[in-house]
Design brief:
Structural class: mainly alpha
Radius of gyration: 18 Å
Strand content: under 5%
Largest sheet: none
Helix content: 55-70%
Order of helices and strands: HHHHHHH
């Protein structure tokens, strides 16, 4: 299994942590369902927005099926002091657009660093570190936005 990267997982809802694990696997849903011994209707229910997750004893098998420990790392992030419930911003249309623009600005910084790093057709350790820092900024902002939108979704459903 790949090593865990320092994603800011504490921002995510359980639904998003499971979806991230699936996305990181690169596997189609039918393959994950087959590996878990699930029917397709059960797999679709697990990966829908409703709160229907694999049981606790199934988590190791799920991690093996997707080939990563993202859900375990999400649990650890949520269980540490840094992972305690974060205040969520309620977004209006204007603030949503500003947050998305900020996210794309960060993506632009990644592109600039990548162009600089690739300009001599060699990747130096300092360039890799700058790229990782810029990508971490994108992930932090993106996952914070996902967390805020999930909270708003929960409040709208209530």
């Amino acid at each position: 299994m790949p090593a865990h990267d320092a994603y800011p997982l504490h921002h995510l809802d359980a639904v998003d942590a499971f979806k991230l694990a699936v996305e990181q696997s690169g596997l189609p849903l039918p393959e994950i369902a087959r590996r878990m011994g699930w029917s397709m209707p059960q797999a679709r229910r697990v990966f829908s927005a409703e709160k229907y997750f694999p049981s606790f004893p199934d988590l190791p098998q799920f991690c093996i099926a997707v080939g990563n420990l993202t859900v375990v790392h999400w649990l650890l992030a949520k269980a540490t002091p840094d992972g305690q419930p974060q205040p969520h911003a309620t977004l209006d249309c204007a603030s949503l657009l500003l947050r998305v623009a900020d996210l794309f600005t960060e993506v632009g910084h990644v592109a600039e660093e990548a162009c600089r790093a690739a300009s001599d057709d060699r990747l130096q350790i300092t360039e890799l570190r700058r790229l990782l820092k810029e990508l971490a900024d994108v992930l932090e902002r993106g996952m914070a936005l996902v967390g805020d939108l999930r909270q708003m979704e929960r409040m709208a459903d209530a």
